[in-house]
Amino acid sequence: MECKKVLKQDYFGDGIVKLNDKNVFVSKALKDDVIKMELTDIKANFSRARITELVSLSPEREEVKCLYYNECGGCHILHQKYFNQLEFKVRKVKEILKHQAGIDFNLTIDDIVYEDRYNYRNKVVLHDLGFYKRESNNVVKIDKCLLLNDRINDVIAILIKSSLVPKEVMIRVSNFGEMLVVINGHIDNDILDLLRKRVTVLFYNGKFITDRKFIIEKIDNYKFKISTKSFFQVNYLVMMDMYRYITSLVRKVESKKVLDLYCGTGTIGILISKYVDSVIGIEVIEEAFLDCNYNKEINGIDNISFFCAKVSDKINDFKDIDLIIVDPPRSGLDRVTIDSIMTIGAKNIIYTSCDISTFARDINILKEKYSIISIKLFDMFANTYHVECVTLLSLKDAMD
Ligand SMILES: C[S@@+](CC[C@H](N)C(=O)[O-])C[C@H]1O[C@@H](n2cnc3c(N)ncnc32)[C@H](O)[C@@H]1O
């Protein structure tokens, strides 16, 4: 096939090339690469392709230090210079907000907060001691990953010596040296013994084989219990930046009664509790909800109450709320929850999102009553196409 110049980067980090007036999405191609390609999937309106030859390189391209990158589905844009990754994410948020919510918000490179590009992840899930290939259930076996905290890579180095390969392994480290490992499937006995001595918590095929059943993480002067099934942010430094930013927004809007929806282990609610009269947290996973109450106790907080429920089932119980904080999973807010939020009519909303498409979909509805005051991006997931976004919204009536 003839040489083609890559015109643009799509929202998943792939390059876009035109062929007979149709878009071809080329995996791992960057704007201004000149490439030869092979079509891998041909559809009526578009095709997918992979690069067979890089004829000339985009100025955004850099050498990849990972041995598994060509096959592994974990990273998407490791081959892109970090500054250009940040530019890509800012542009992506701006464009998605414009196209999907009709909002033209002025975002610049100064609106994205970032920390380390490598070794930032404090959690990993391995399948058959590897990562899934992109859009596939086939696994690429790895012996380390550039994005992972070194202490996680040390555990992987031990695990891959086992002749038995466990189906799934989850490893999480706290910033203060504790480590939690959950294994489903079997590993050799000597490796199990070695691990038991190395880690804080080992949950092996449904049973704890360590005395400790949870790890502790610290955020500023607060401590947080994290259990095997609880959510916790994967990038400690960017998480700290993000929580400090959210706290600054909460102080700025001077609220009394706050809802912290999708509260995980209660982090945001607890961190902001001293700046407001009261906080109500809602979380659906029982183990995380129990962690919330434990975290409330160990931090000596008495103006926060937690409820274990689906947000949509519980939210209507609360009235006279002046600030609603939402931090939903990638699926965003469901329609019942959005309608309830609109009915409550809190003066302000802080929407924390890890998926810009569902966020834009929700903003498209919320914009009837709320205006966007500020947006800040956080590069929680460097080298992937994902980005975290914190938005402050204010009720239109209250602004008149
Ligand atoms: C992105 S995490 C945010 C957690 C927390 N705000 C934090 O910063 O650590 C989303 C949380 O929402 C919870 N969740 C998902 N769906 C839910 C629902 N329908 N109702 C309540 N909680 C839900 C998940 O278990 C998870 O803990």
What does the model show?
The protein is an alpha/beta fold and 400 residues long. The protein has three domains: 1-61, OB fold (Dihydrolipoamide Acetyltransferase, E2P), CATH 2.40.50; 86-116 and 235-399, Rossmann fold (3-Layer(aba) Sandwich); 123-217. The protein contains ten helices and 23 strands. The protein has helices spanning 82-101, 150-159, 189-198, 236-253, 267-272, 286-298, 311-314, 335-344, 356-366, 396-399, and strands at residues 4-5, 8-9, 15-19, 22-27, 34-42, 46-56, 112-113, 123-127, 130-132, 139-141, 168-173, 179-184, 201-204, 207-208, 215-219, 222-226, 257-261, 278-283, 304-308, 323-326, 348-353, 370-378, 388-395. Strands 7-22-23-21-20-17-18-19 form an eight-stranded mixed sheet, sandwiched between helices. The radius of gyration is 23 Å and the shape is globular. The mean pLDDT is 96. The structure holds S-adenosylmethionine (SAM). S-adenosylmethionine binds next to helix 5 and strand 18.
Major β-sheet profile: 8 strands, mixed
Low-pLDDT segments = none
In what order do the strands lie side by side in the largest sheet? Answer: 7-22-23-21-20-17-18-19
- Kindly name the structural category: alpha/beta
CATH architect. name of the largest domain: 3-Layer(aba) Sandwich
The overall average pLDDT, rounded, is: 96
Name of the top-level CATH class of the largest domain: Alpha Beta
- Distance from N terminus to C terminus (CA atoms, Å) equals 60 Å
The CATH H-level homologous superfamily of the largest domain: Vaccinia Virus protein VP39
Percentage of β-strand residues: 25-35%
Tertiary shape:
globular
If you compute it from the alpha carbons, what radius of gyration comes out, rounded to the nearest whole angstrom? 23 Å
Number of strands: 23
Question: What's the total helix number?
Answer: 10
Give helix % range. Answer: 25-40%
